[in-house]
Write a structure and sequence with these properties.
The chain is of the alpha+beta class. Helices cover 27% and strands 26% of the residues. Bound molecules: uridine-diphosphate-2(N-acetylglucosaminyl) butyric acid.
Length: 334
């Protein structure tokens, strides 16, 4: 059975099982354990951050838990629990319509709500961890339910306990977001203020819907639509390097983009490094580097996971040679 993935890579699993409730998930797990105890299970959302190198010789479990409920509400905030199988961007659109704010900057990121909590998706100065209150999951081993408060999720840049220590151990079932009822646009990310002005809009009277549209327009201009050209968004993480190393590089490349990070560290732009290394718009067989955002690798058609991996390795090698920086994929290799 074909596994859905936005890279458009052909990969099969023994079966892809969708569940639309906790009970459905538990029943599926019990059946799998009874008949196929030794076969591995892979948890996926829409497959927007996965690169399949081989077929998966096991079972794929996919959340189809939909809907959302308000758990608590004050004049200022709302706590809303969302099914992990909701498409994240569709929830953001609905939230804005209801007057619940905080996720506008994450508009148009592909993927489901559960995966957003695993991957700690981020864009334009906002990360999922900023709006997550708690995450619910069910153990693949003993079917027990567990709840993690935000502070327990070990969130970091594109990182969480679910991607780390607990990888493959829990299926995320629901995510509770803490959203604001008064809109405060977050425009600190480079280029947003300019984009607002270019639209002839005023920072002070900007609506959430207008900001959402601005984010959507920027993303559409830069990032390839996975429905038209297979890709998984940013393929690499932006590298975080010691301050001294960043300073040495800045002396040589004064225009190199760089951002503050943890104490003594600086975050660099992988897209810039890849472009400088000469890879932007270049192909290696059926795999290519996107011509408008070098951080995105694309499937030109018919690429296998190994084709994409070959391109990934070639880029890593050149960036390492040129800048002494080890790029780390953001995408999960399966
Ligand atoms: N840049 C280049 N050449 C390129 C691409 C970028 O020189 O080909 C430079 C830009 O000019 C800019 C800097 O690099 O100075 C940063 O570029 P951009 O604002 O496009 O963002 P990014 O750091 O490349 C990150 C996220 C994106 C997210 C944007 C906006 C990661 C790995 N990627 O990209 O997330 O949309 O910021 O917040 O952190 C994703 O994770 O899939 C994703 C698309």
């Amino acid at each position: 059975m074909r596994i859905e993935n936005t890279f458009g890579i052909e990969a099969e699993a023994l079966a892809v099982i969708k569940y639309d409730s906790e009970k459905g998930l538990t029943n599926a797990l019990k059946t799998l354990h009874k008949f196929n105890a030794e076969l591995p299970i892979l948890l996926i959302g829409q497959g927007s951050n996965l690169l399949f190198l081989n077929d998966f010789k096991g079972f794929v479990l996919k959340s189809n838990i939909k809907g959302f409920v308000v758990k608590q509400e004050t004049d200022d905030e709302v706590l809303v629990e969302v099914g992990s199988g909701e498409v994240c961007d569709e929830f953001i659109a609905q939230a804005i319509q209801r007057g619940w704010y905080g996720m506008e900057n994450l508009s148009l990121i592909p993927g489901q709500v559960g995966a957003a909590a695993v991957q700690n998706i981020g864009a334009y100065g906002v990360e999922a961890q900023d709006v997550i209150e708690e995450v619910k999951g069910i153990s693949l081993k003993d079917y027990s339910e567990r709840i993690w408060k935000q502070q327990e999720c070990q969130y970091g840049y594109r990182q969480s306990i679910f991607k780390g220590d607990l990888w493959g151990q829990y299926a995320i079932t629901r995510v509770t977001f803490r959203l604001k009822k008064h809109f405060e646009p977050k425009l600190q990310y480079g280029g947003l203020v300019k984009a607002v002005e270019e639209k002839g809009l005023m920072k002070d009277s900007l609506t959430a819907q207008e900001l959402r549209q601005i984010i959507i327009d920027i993303r559409r201009a830069k990032l390839p639509d996975p429905k038209k050209q297979g890709n998984a968004g940013s393929f690499f993480k932006n590298p975080v390097v010691p301050k001294e190393q960043a300073e040495r590089l800045l002396a040589e490349y004064p225009t190199m983009p760089h951002y503050p990070a943890d104490e003594g560290k600086v975050k660099l732009a992988a897209g810039w490094l890849i472009e400088q290394a000469g890879w932007k718009g270049k192909s290696l067989g059926p795999a290519a580097v996107h011509d408008r955002q070098a951080l995105v690798l694309v499937n030109k058609g018919g690429a296998s996971g190994s084709d994409i991996q070959r391109l990934c390795e070639a880029i890593k090698k050149d960036v390492k040679e040129r800048f002494g920086i080890e790029l780390e994929p953001e995408v999960n290799f399966i």
